[in-house]
Design brief:
Layout (H helix, E strand, L loop, with lengths): L2 H8 L17 E4 L2 E8 L1 E2 L2 E2 L11 H22 L7 E12 L7 H16 L6 E7 L8 E9 L2
Parallel strand pairs: 5-6
Antiparallel strand pairs: 1-2, 2-7, 3-4, 5-7
Length: 155
Amino acid sequence: MSVIAARMIELGIELPGANPPAGNYVPFVRTGNLVHIAGQTCKWNGVMQFEGKLGKELTVEQGQKAARFCLLNILLQLRNACEGDLDKVKRAVRMTVYVNCAADFYQLPQVGNGASDLMIEIFGERGKHVRSAVGAHSLPLNSAVEIDAIFELKE
């Protein structure tokens, strides 16, 4: 069993199959040693977990949970890009967190921490990454959060 798979079991994380793309695009592109993961929402096992706007219908805590689901969906796509072996990940490089939020909502970094904290719990030092958090007036399927990411793979 891989180190990352064992760590995920310790954390009680079980990954199902990946969500199919919601449009005319591919879920990831590998170029050289980089994998670019398309934006992933908080849809889990076919059900949107958190719909609506942060600062209106949803709290920061709900946004953090939504961000965690987004990261789990990123890991599903990354696992596919790594042919099933997440130990091939050398490091997380970048995440962009899009938050469906009210115009006066400013706690974007706190929402993003839901995904960033989990990334580091799973990958340790390899999970440290740069990040942007951006407010959006709407997201696909009324998802509360959407995240895209870039990873570097081992040679």
